[in-house]
């Protein structure tokens, strides 16, 4: 944390996308739908999932939350 003219300046929050890389997740979307798959990649604006052997790109502003799936075999649609 830096001090600028008597105020505290907070650093940019850590990007947690790397924690999700290559993990099985459930992505809950703004429209309350959900997708289950494996995280292949992430950028500032997109999350790339493998769902049923297909690649899906999700625009991050439409994601409400991402839940990790503890059981690797728990990918039933």
How many discrete domains? 1
CATH architecture: Roll
| Beta-strand share of residues | over 45%
Overall shape: it is: globular
Placed side by side, the strands forming the largest sheet appear as: 6-5-4-3-7
Describe this structure in words.
The protein has 77 residues and is mainly β. The mean pLDDT is 83. The chain has one domain: SH3 type barrels, CATH 2.30.30.100. The strands form two sheets. The chain has a five-stranded antiparallel sheet with strand order 6-5-4-3-7. A two-stranded antiparallel ribbon has the order 1-2. The longest helix is centred in the first third of the chain and has 4 residues, at 17-20. The chain has one helix and seven strands.
Task: Describe the structure concisely.
The protein is mainly beta. 5% of the residues lie in helices and 51% in strands.
Helices and strands, with pairings:
Blueprint: E1 2-4, E2 7-9, H1 17-20, E3 24-29, E4 34-42, E5 46-51, E6 54-59, E7 63-68
Antiparallel strand pairs: 1-2, 3-4, 3-7, 4-5, 5-6
Which key features would you list for this structure?
77 residues; mainly beta; SH3 type barrels; five-stranded antiparallel sheet; 7 strands; 51% strand
